[in-house]
Amino acid sequence: MTANETLKKYFGYDSFRDGQQTIINTILSGRDALAIMPTGAGKSICYQVPALMMSGITLVISPLISLMQDQVKSLNDAGINAAYINSSLTEKQVSMALDYAAKGVYKIIYVAPERLENEEFLYFADNAEISMVTVDEAHCISQWGQDFRPSYLKIADFVNRLPVRPVLSSFTATATKEVKNDILCILGLKEPEIVITGFDRKNLYYSVENIKRKDEFIIDYIEKHRDDSGIIYCSTRKNVDAVQEMLASKGMAVTKYHAGMSSDDRKQSQDDFIYDRKPVIVATNAFGMGIDKSNVRYVIHYNMPQSMENYYQEAGRAGRDGEQSQCILLFSPQDVMINRFLLDNKDFSDIPPEDIELIKEHDNKRLQAMEGYCRTTGCLRNYILEYFGEKTDAPCGDCGNCNREYEEVDMTREAKWIINCVAETKSRYGINVILGTLLGANRARLKELHMTECRTYGALKDSNEKILKDLVNQMVLDGYLHKTNDRYSVLKIGDISSLRDENAKVTMRMNKKQEETREKNTKKKPLSRRSTDELTSAGFELFELLRGLRLEIAKEEAMPPYIIFSDKTLIDMCVKMPLDAEQMLDVSGVGMNKLTKYGERFLGVIKKYAEENAGRVTSINHDK
Prior knowledge:
Distance between the termini: 89 Å
Number of strands: 17
Helix content: 40-55%
Low-confidence stretches: none
Radius of gyration: 28 Å
Largest sheet: 7 strands, parallel
Strand content: 5-15%
Number of helices: 25
Structural class: alpha/beta
Mean pLDDT: 87
Shape: globular
């Protein structure tokens, strides 16, 4: 039976999609293969068809139980004997599955990577005819991948210890150049055929909405798409619960999914979504890998993901049937802060100590690229394609940015002042200090750093801070500036050679609202004061210590931190530096009850800081 006949008999398709035939022919010729294909491009066909045509068993190494179960169910429904072996089975069920496999009952077996070290499984593998080992979600093998799993590092050892080396095939939807090289090297692929079918999903419409009222947007969108199935991704379990409850209270058929739910509840939610009993699901990124639901018409991100890899994979769950679908990202600057917090608290327990700093640096780079996607006014489709290394030509003409009305505004003057300020301060400061200086802000930190004495101080006092921030981000994308990858990133000068031409221009695309804001700002009103404006660097240090204590107490009492004390109250503590109960009561937001509950612990931190930093000033009164 030929590959085309196998495809028709078991899967019902008359022809292969782009790239599938090449990969299948490579495998059938006995060569290793790496396929990078977007979600919905039919990766599973690429190993399932040759698996049916080869004489022995194909082992498919897969990272998620739900993925295995769905694939095996689909294969069994198609008349193909397949099984999975993972922690959801009892030891008796595992032994029975391996016994059937040894007798040739199964052609395809899905297995969790952790199983490759199990003695019973190794005995089976040593005595079975294994024609192919397929690594699904192969990016999990790379520490630069968004879903790194240390257990994937054992795959090469497993393959190398087999009596006869099988064909090794690997598949992923998301792989940058670094991840691709890791897959090739760590798996030890031998003279592989590398097939990259491209990352463009022409049926997906990408848009970014920079809005504050996200709940209203989602309610309105789902009301207008009641007959459609969709996924809403949130960055935290708390957000998932809140959004799902909010939508359910509006009478919408919606379920939820996150790792804090029981396995039975997660399974029920997944089934409700897949079988359209509840066509909308609100979930963390724990949901979706291996979910082959073809009629998802939209994917909305309630929060910005941590990387373009995550976003591309999650957004790609829309429109797997090739029909037009929407991928909408709701962005607010707070999303960046949330992701930085999550990255700062990332679990590195399985990572060698010498690799941790490199991974942190890479995480920061990916977060910057993701923020760039949210802030760009250029073509969103091209941004995605260029991130994954594809060359692009003209804008796609069919994404949220291409269809939005923009005006090209000359920002050359502002751009040159930004570069001058970075140069004058010898590339030592981040965006807030640079823009505060240019705007002539009355902040203690600027006085402490003597920024008020700079030639550039107040040079752009008639400008809008948000628009200048957008300009800085564009200048980073254009290469005029460079952001370091430290936790507190510093601005450095990039390649500005083209700006030496007196005719060179830096233009920025602005929508109507931004342009109106810019025009209003020229009729100058005083720069708005911020609660932190009085704090010096010492004040910020103490503020962070007090926030740390507040978080510690919040965890102890299982309540939101702001219920204990607001940021405004902590800042006032830094300004007033209370050293006893009477002085603490003078702090805004501290009443007798909170003084009794928390006063002693906060006073302890303030006293200790004052003793260890004698002579350092925590605030400056601007009126003096």
